[in-house]
Amino acid sequence: MQPTPFKLERYFAQHEFTARHLLCSSDPESMSIGELLAFEPGSIDGLRETWLGYTEHPGAPALRRELATLCENVRDDEIIVHTGAQEAIYSFMSSMLAPGDHVIVHMPGYQSHYSVAEAMGVKVSPWKAREQAGWAVDPDELEALVTPATRALVICAPHNPTGYLPSRDVFDAIVAFARRHELWLFSDEVYRGLEHDPADRLPAACDVYERAISLGALSKTHGLAGLRLGWIATKSAEVLRRMSTFKDYLTISNSAPGEYLAAIAVRHTDALIARSIDIVRSNLCLLDDFFTRRADRFEWHRPRAGTIGFVRLKHGHAEQFCAELLERTGVLLLPSTLIDYGDAHFRLGFGRRNMPDVLAILDAHLDATATSTAS
Description:
By secondary structure, this protein is of the alpha/beta class. The protein has helices at 7-15, 33-37, 43-49, 61-68, 84-96, 115-119, 142-145, 168-180, 205-208, 237-247, 256-267, 269-293, 318-329, 355-374; strands at 21-22, 79-82, 102-107, 123-128, 150-156, 184-188, 212-217, 230-234, 298-300, 308-313, 331-332, 334-335, 345-349. It comes from Caballeronia ptereochthonis.
């Protein structure tokens, strides 16, 4: 199997650590190991004493106990810890799908949600978000997409890249559809917890549907991308068995220091979420003003969750706009061509503390280009 190149990741490999200013990062502000250890006095001693032998293949028991607290109905033995969310996505697709199968995928979306399946010979049907409805999806459209070969529905809620969050009624309709057709419901929930209004938080799909697989990661909700830790939670014994067997051909087991630090992070989930949401709310106020002033250039549907939004250019092409912005200012945005969604949008990130400074650079660039165009 040879998946097509992961365009977003190839773009970041080229620019993420050379661009002067990132304005498209999907993860919120991170922290040092020292800052994380400060949440628990004495934890540095535990890190020093962490044994550097092999760890248990589904994840350290102490970590899985902590992760189980993020769900309502899932036990610690119904969780498999992976090296990041990406490994878990790859493992699910590879172990639970087969050539000739069919999946329905929420789009626009994260490339590995569909490219891995396509490389295996699985047919993919897009379930398209509606931009003019604030990037909402319509569950009534799902019946027209299902076929006798359909095995799974892949969703992302809160959504990457639009920041859309379904209402509880829409979420329940999605679950009901999956249950009616006995589909696997692979629910990417890496932004769950970063709802801008906590009252909007949805349950984990694994808590409400026996064939659901909830994907979590510390990269987004906790702002700890460098720990490279993700997990799946599910009530399905079949999924647990098959994904565990497949993981033997991946990392086998995880990093012992990483799992120790991850357990600390999960114990302090509320504090880490509050830290990120404070930054997000402040930045969104600035973006509200920016997009009001720049309504002639951009169309913006304010996200309800997460740290990213999807912006439409009213004139020009996103790829050219992003390339010129990077060349002239060092500011990195992500054009929609890299997520297989035309050439009229770009992804913008608002989870970093330096966003006000970077937004000011973008503002100045727009003024300068407007002046040069006018002259």
